[in-house]
Amino acid sequence: MNDTADLVARQTLADVIGRLLIAPPSAQLWAEAVALPELATVMTDQTESLAVAYEQTFGRNVYPYESLYRDEELMLNTAAADQVAAFYATCGFTPPQTVGAPDHLGVEFLFLARLIATEAAALADGDSGLQHWAHQHAASFLSNHLAVWVPVWAHAVQRIPGHPLYQTLTTLAVEFIESELERLQPVPSSSRSYIPLATSAASPETDDLNTLIRHLITPVHAGIFFSRADCSQLARRLGFSIPIGDRFTMMRTLFETAGEFEQADGLIVALQEMMSAEAQRLSLLIDGQAAWQPFLAPWIERLERSQRLIST
User: What is the C-alpha to C-alpha distance for residues 298 and 194, in angstroms, rounded to an integer?
Assistant: First the structure.
């Protein structure tokens, strides 16, 4: 469906999702979100409590930057972020200065909202050339960026016991992208740039714990984003606790402590189960909407490789 009213509704929803992902809601944004049926039932707390929930979810655990899921460096402003910034520049879009890098998911949603708004205005004005331009650029951005990594990010958020707003927001983000995949029917990128160029993943022959940990905390290798909350939950499942630190340190401490408590096998089983559950969730998305297949199949392949790795 591509009538003007539908496009305006899509633009409004994408814009609200983007702003809610960038920062805790202001009073104005709160009022806009409450007016949307998709969010009305979970907008029940005051904005002050949401600020704490926002920091816990996106500031300390599941960081909403594309480069952390698609590049090996695990840093901001790497190659993936440069690609996003170049796409923005092509379309004359300037991201807000309040985010750490241009590939913040909230900014990506604001950009998609801008393209949808342009398409809606062009349709209303009878400008078929501009309408086609906006439509094609939205399809390209979807297939080269949003559809490639957002479900993995969303599932990591949903594994954390968190505020209903942010749990709902992640589900809504995935559903919106799925709806846009159906509407735009983009052609997947033939370059598959989300496959790492360097081969630095651990091999089944290695016995170096640091190499294994680096593999597990690098989503583009592991197929999953292990957050600090994931590490804490795994430790509790095995009957002990580990101190809060960066993800590498927490994952290494998890393995070392599991060994000390003779829980190494239990840790392997727990990791295998998490990866299997993630693969199943990705497969369910593909089953529900075949357009997901070229974007999510590589993640399932990574998960299968990682399960073989930790079982050796």
Answer: 9
Secondary structure of 220-275 as H, E, C letters: HHHCCCCCHHHHHHHHHHCCCCCCCCCHHHHHHHHHHHHHHCCCHHHHHHHHHHHH
Say whether pLDDT at 14 is over 90.
yes
Query: Is 15 in contact with 116 (CB distance < 8 Å)?
Result: no
A 10 A CB-CB count for 179 gives 14
Residue 96 CA to chain centroid, in angstroms? Answer: 20
pLDDT averaged over every residue in the chain: 92
Neighbour count for residue 98 (Cβ, 10 Å): 10
**φ and ψ of 56, to 5 deg:** -65, -40
73: tokens are 């460096």
Where do runs of H (alpha helix) occur along 35-104? 47-54, 67-70, 79-90
Question: Considering the entire predicted model, what is its pTM?
Answer: 0.93
Rounded to an integer, the average pLDDT of 261-274 is 97
Tell me the C-alpha distance between 159 and 29, whole Å: 26
